[in-house]
Amino acid sequence: MTIEATTWLYVAIEKTGPGEQIVGQTDTEQNISFIPAFLSKDAAEQALFHLNLEKKKKYEVQAIIYEDLSRHAAEGEFFIFVMDEDGNVVERLPAAP
User: Fold this and answer.
1) CB of 39 within 8 A of CB of 17?
2) Taking the mean position of all CA atoms in its chain, how far away is CA 88?
3) CA–CA separation, 43 vs 61, rounded Å?
4) Torsional class of 10: left (φ above 0), alpha (ψ -120 to 50), beta (otherwise)
5) Is the separation of the CB atoms in 83 and 9 below 8 Å?
6) pLDDT digits (tens, 9 = 90+) for 27-48
7) Distance from C-alpha of 90 to C-alpha of 17, rounded to nearest angstrom
8) What ranges do the domains of the chain cover?
9) Based on C-alpha coordinates, what's the Rg of the chain?
10) Cα separation, 90 vs 82, whole angstroms
C-alpha cells in the first residue's frame, strides 16, 4: 500500500489529564525516535501489547491523516514506522512528506 498525504493511519494516544499526546518510541540500538503507526485500528490495538508503554498511563487508538501525523513527527524529529499487529516494521516513512 502506498501511503499518501490523505491516507488515514492509526496511532496510540497517551491520555494525559485533559490533554493528549501521540505515543513515540525509541530504537536504542539505532538511536532513532519514531511514531508507531498502523493501517487499521485492529492492528494498532493488538500492537499496543508490543510497544514500550508506561503501565499506569491510559492509552487509546485514534485515526490521524498522514499529512497531519508527518507534521507532528517533523516537529519532534521523529520518523514514522508503519507496523503490523505484531509490532514488526512494515515501512519507514520520512518525518515530512
Assistant:
1) no
2) 12
3) 10
4) beta
5) no
6) 889 899 999 999 999 999 999 9
7) 32
8) 8-93
9) 12
10) 6
Number of residues in the chain: 97
The β-bridge relationship of strands 89-93 and 79-83 is antiparallel
For CA atoms 23, 8, 39, 77, the dihedral sign is negative
AA letter at 62: Q
Its pTM stands at 0.90
Please give the torsion angle defined by the CA atoms of residues 82, 85, 76 and 67, in that order, rounded to the nearest 10 degrees: 50
Q: Which three cell numbers stand for residue 76?
A: 519532534
User: How high does pLDDT run on average in the chain?
Assistant: 91
If we measure between CA atoms, which residue out of 44, 42, 53 comes closest to residue 15? 53
